[in-house]
Specification:
alpha+beta, single chain, five-stranded mixed β-sheet, binds magnesium ion, binds thymidine-5'-triphosphate
Length: 365
C-alpha cells in the first residue's frame, strides 16, 4: 500500500514569528534574527532571515556584519525564544488535528512529519490535505509554512524544500515517476548530504541525483563506504523509516578518526574537513534509525595522549546535519584550538530521543 507522508516546515521560522506574531510592522521587511551589528562590533551570526532579507543574499549562519553590508536597511532582532517555543507548540496543536499521536514525528522546533495515508489515496487528495494543513496553520498561528508530500519521509522533506516559502509539492508515488522527479536535483537535496559529502560526490562527477541513480551500489562503495546503499536508496526515493521510532535502545552514536600522522593545530582545513566527515557519517547513521540528538560532543587527543571531551546540549532535539556540524566546529574553535599537534578527533551524538515525547518534558529551556 502506498504511504502518504507529509513534511511540514515553517518558513523563515524565527523571523516569521517576529513579523507575524510579535511586531506586524516588520511584515514585508528584511528581518534578520541575530545581534544588531550597528550597535557595536559583533561576532554573532544570523540565526535566520525573512525571505525579504534572503533576496539580498543573506542566509542562516552568516556573520551579522556581512548581512548588514549586503542589506544596510535590514532590521536586526535579537530573538525571543519563549515566543518561538509558543509558536512551535501552536503549530504542533494544528498538526494533531490531522493525525494521531502515533502518526506524527516532530524533528525540530519548526518541522514535523505526519503520516496522512488514512485520509489520502491519490496525488490530488494529497494536495488537498496539504492545502488544508497549510491554511489551518496560517489561520491558527498566523505563520507561513511549506509542505511536501511523498511516499516516505525522505521524499517528503526533499519535496518541501523544492518550493519555499508557502509551497506545496506532491511527489509522484509511482517508483519510476519518482526517480524522474528526483533526477534533476542536486545531491545536496538529500537530508544528510552535507557540504563535505557533496564535495566528495562532485569530485567524482556526481552532481545530480540522476548521477547516483545510474550507478550500482557496489560502484558507489569506493566513494561512500558503508553509506553507499543509504545514498543510493535516497537518490531513488527509497526510505523505509516509519514515522514512529522505538529508538532501538541506543543512547549515543560516535565516530572517531586517528590520524596516520599527527595533525598540526594550524592545519584548520584538515581539522574542519575531518569534523565534517565525522558528522556526515554520524548523520547517515542517525538517519537510518530516524532518531534525533540533542547533545553533540567532540573528543580530541593531543600528541601527548591528553584527551579532552567537550559537549554542548542544544535547546531542542533535532536531526539537523547543519546544526551538528556547526556545533562540532564551534566546540573545537571555542575550547580546543590549542597549540599542540592532534592525534585523534571524534564526534559523539547523545541524548538520542523520540522528539515528540521529549518536547513534552523539556520544551526549550
Ligand atoms: P530552518 O527550518 O532550517 O530555517 P527557517 O525556518 O528559518 O527557514 P526555511 O524557510 O528555509 O525553513 O530552521 C528553523 C529555525 O531554527 C530558524 O528559523 C532559526 C533556527 N536556526 C538557528 O537558530 N540556527 C541555524 O543555524 C539554523 C539553520 C536555524
Ligand atoms: Mg523552517
Amino acid at each position: 500500500m502506498t504511504r502518504w507522508i507529509a513534511h511540514v516546515d515553517m518558513d523563515a521560522f524565527f523571523a516569521s514569528v517576529e513579523q507575524f506574531r510579535i511586531n506586524p510592522a516588520l511584515v514585508g521587511q528584511p528581518v534578520c534574527v541575530g545581534p544588531d551589528p550597528t550597535e557595536g562590533p559583533s561576532r554573532g551570526v544570523v540565526r535566520t532571515a525573512s525571505y525579504e532579507a534572503r533576496e539580498y543574499g543573506i542566509t542562516s549562519g552568516m556573520p551579522v556584519s556581512k548581512a548588514h553590508s549586503l542589506c544596510p536597511e535590514a532590521i536586526f532582532v535579537s530573538g525571543s525564544f519563549q515566543h518561538y517555543k509558543d509558536a512551535s507548540a501552536d503549530f504542533m496543536t494544528v498538526l494533531h488535528s490531522y493525525a494521531d499521536e502515533d502518526s506524527i514525528r516532530k524533528t525540530s522546533i519548526d518541522e514535523a512529519y505526519l503520516d496522512v495515508s488514512h485520509s489520502c489515496s491519490n496525488s490530488t487528495e494529497a494536495h488537498g490535505i496539504a492545502q488544508s494543513i497549510q491554511d489551518a496553520i496560517k489561520r491558527s498561528t498566523r505563520l507561513p509554512c511549506s509542505i511536501g508530500i511523498g511516499p516516505n519521509m525522505s521524499v517528503a522533506k526533499i519535496s518541501t524544500d523544492m518550493n519555499k516559502p508557502m509551497g506545496i509539492t506532491v511527489a509522484p508515488p509511482d517508483p519510476d515517476a519518482l526517480r524522474e522527479f528526483l533526477a534533476p536535483l542536486d545531491v545536496r537535496a538529500i537530508n544528510g548530504v552535507g557540504s563535505k559529502t557533496a564535495d566528495k560526490l562532485y569530485n567524482h562527477g556526481l552532481h545530480e541525483l540522476r548521477d547516483i541513480q545510474s550507478l550500482s551500489i557496489p560502484q558507489l562503495v569506493p566513494i561512500m563506504g558503508n553509506s553507499a546503499k543509504w545514498l543510493h536508496d535516497r537518490a531513488c526515493g527509497i526510505d523505509d523509516r516509519t514515522i514512529r521510532s522505538s529508538g532501538n535502545g541506543r543512547s549515543s552514536f560516535s565516530k572517531e578518526t586517528t590520524f596516520a600522522e599527527n595533525v598540526s593545530p594550524n592545519d584548520l582545513g584538515m581539522i574542519l574537513k575531518t569534523l565534517g566527515n565525522l558528522c556526515d557519517s554520524l548523520h547517515s547513521k542517525l538517519n537510518k534509525t530516524g532518531l534525533a540528538y540533542q547533545t553533540v560532543s567532540i573528543r580530541l587527543r593531543y600528541s601527548d595522549f591528553t584527551t579532552i571531551l567537550r559537549s554542548k546540549t542544544l535547546p531542542t532535539p533535532t536531526d539537523s546535519h547543519t546544526a551538528m556540524e556547526k556545533t562540532a566546529i564551534n566546540l573545537y574553535e571555542e575550547n580546543l584550538a590549542e597549540n599542540r599537534p592532534i592525534r585523534l578527533l571524534g564526534v559523539k551524538l547523545s541524548s538520542l530521543q523520540d522528539i515528540e515525547s521529549q518536547m513534552k518534558l523539556t520544551q526549550f529551556v
